[in-house]
Write a structure and sequence with these properties.
about 375 residues, mainly alpha, 2 domains, 3-stranded antiparallel sheet, globular
Length: about 375
């Protein structure tokens, strides 16, 4: 499981739970600021009062003539909450650049195509989970909670139908930007890039981190009767990120998932297709099983693509590199004291890409602990 060692460990000595709280608060602050600025902008463009704009947001379907205004409100809020606020956190709190989220900087055509295709094919699998989730009922003693959940679901479904009721090509472009491009960049940046890495550092287990992030990812959408399929989608994106080591791949997959649905709804509304992607019951079991098989094969191929260069070091992860031999020996000695059996690779051969660099590798089960020791416990002075 080579690339499952892409734990990154970006966040220094700060306690991971404190980092998570800071990140969530900053993102919430970004949401508030984004909504406030969006409301101000809409009041200026459409000559409306703030009260009228808030009324529009509350009863979205009653204002079809202000669809672009709703897109502005939705888009600006998402940009501030999921892109600008997390960027501020990464740059000024963690003092890291966004490139650190992608230790594998190379972009290859095959995994790009795989990410796009997997995202689309997996929809048919998720439709069955969506159908099952939509039929969820709670025990009788929770009927008040269930009523509230149904009310929230109906409101969000109304808003989604309003935003995806696309009549013109210009509306289609705007919908793709707001519903596909911005969420793909922002939600993957925040959830996979930052939250998942924090949770990995906190739990010490990448699988726990991926699934917990998927749960949080689904929870913030507040759509209880679509919780399971959205969680599974988040988990899929999480593994795509870990295996590839590049945040761009889950961003592309996320974009393909959302964008494909927007385009299909537009084609159905324009009577260019008879398939309504919103009707999940239209997917028969044969299609579900076939899609599940194809998705599984493609996901396995995607994973193996990023393992092909690891060869005999497939279960070994680099945890430290330096061009100073004495530092490498110190790190090796300390990790050896912790029974991690580190391996030192001295790249004196000019055929290596990083000539003269010395690397320390440990097996994947020790990766997190080794990096924590190097970061927090070793003093080279």
């Amino acid at each position: 499981m080579a690339k499952i060692g892409n734990d990154l460990l970006l966040f220094g000595k700060r306690k991971p739970w404190l980092s998570l709280i800071s990140l969530i608060l900053i993102s919430f602050g970004g949401l508030v600021i984004g909504q406030f600025l969006a409301v101000l902008l809409v009041t200026k463009i459409y000559n409306l009062s703030m009260f009228q704009v808030m009324e529009m947001v509350t009863n979205i379907s009653d204002y079809p003539e202000y669809k672009v205004a709703i897109y502005i409100l939705q888009g600006m809020s998402a940009v501030f909450a999921f892109i600008l606020a997390p960027w501020f956190y990464l740059r000024f709190i963690e003092k890291k650049r966004i490139g650190v989220l992608s230790p594998n900087h190379s972009i290859e055509l095959i995994p790009v195509l795989l990410a796009l295709i997997i995202s689309v094919v997996f929809m048919a699998v998720n439709f069955k989970f969506a159908e099952w989730n939509a039929q969820m009922t709670l025990p009788e003693f929770l009927r008040d909670i269930e009523a509230w959940m149904r009310l929230q679901e109906d409101k969000l479904e109304e808003a989604t139908m309003f935003l995806t009721n696309i009549n013109t090509a210009s509306e289609l472009i705007l919908a793709i930007v707001v519903i596909a491009v911005i969420p793909a960049i922002g939600e993957e940046f925040l959830f996979r890039g930052l939250i998942q890495n924090h949770l990995h550092r906190w739990t010490g287990n990448i699988h726990w981190a991926i699934w917990l992030t998927g749960i949080l990812f689904s929870t913030i959408h507040i759509q209880f009767y679509g919780f399971v399929p959205r969680m599974l989608l988040g988990v899929l994106f999480g593994y795509m990120y870990v295996w590839s080591g590049n945040i761009l791949y889950p961003m592309l997959a996320h974009f393909a998932n959302n964008g494909f649905q927007v385009v299909m709804l537009y084609l159905y509304k324009s009577e260019l297709t008879n398939f309504n992607i919103d009707e999940t019951e239209t997917v028969p079991w044969t299609v579900f099983l076939t899609s599940a098989l194809i998705s599984g094969v493609l996901i396995l191929y995607y994973k193996r693509h990023f393992m092909k260069d690891d060869n005999l070091l497939a279960d070994w992860i680099k945890v430290y590199s330096t061009d100073q031999p004495h530092r490498a020996e110190i790190v090796k000695a300390v990790l050896s004291e912790h029974q991690m059996n580190p391996v030192l690779i001295n790249k004196k051969d000019s055929s290596y890409h990083n000539f003269g660099e010395i690397e320390i590798h440990v097996t994947s089960k020790y990766t997190l602990r080794a990096r924590q020791i190097i970061e927090n416990d070793i003093n080279f002075e």
